[in-house]
Design a protein that fits this description.
Blueprint: H1 16-27, H2 32-39, H3 43-52, H4 70-82, H5 84-87, H6 91-98, H7 103-112
Helix pairs in contact: 1-2, 2-3, 6-7
């Protein structure tokens, strides 16, 4: 006896190229139905893409997680800004004082906070 297929088929996310094609076809005046049949995607996917208006979606899990939390970055910025002595510390000294991640990480977050010049 063969297993029956699931009642709801598994759907994949649209690729960037599919989203781009949807937006292009829609701007040329194609209907949701024509776009969905041509690209073999659901009408709902076409509608959603047109409503979002972006060919490159940003998912909640996109990108690498930061090595330092927001609180750690705030602590670092507050420490560096607190006195003349701490502003003159090298990146290596800051890294040794706070975290073992290394001075490159410290440089990155201080650059992002506009506390050092590149």
């Amino acid at each position: 006896m063969t297993p029956s297929p699931p009642s709801t088929p598994i759907r994949k996310r649209l690729t960037r190229d599919q989203r781009r094609d949807i937006l292009l076809m829609r701007s040329l005046g194609f209907t949701y139905t024509k776009i969905s049949s041509h690209l073999k995607v659901t009408e709902r996917a076409v509608q959603y893409t047109c409503e979002k208006g972006a060919a490159t979606p940003q998912h909640h899990n996109a990108g690498r997680a930061p090595k330092l939390s927001k609180e750690e970055v705030d602590t670092l910025i507050e420490f560096v800004s607190s006195s003349r002595k701490t502003r003159r510390m090298s990146y290596l000294q800051l890294a040794e004082h706070f975290w073992p991640e290394g001075e490159e990480l410290i440089v990155k977050f201080l650059l992002l906070a506009d506390l050092v010049k590149s």
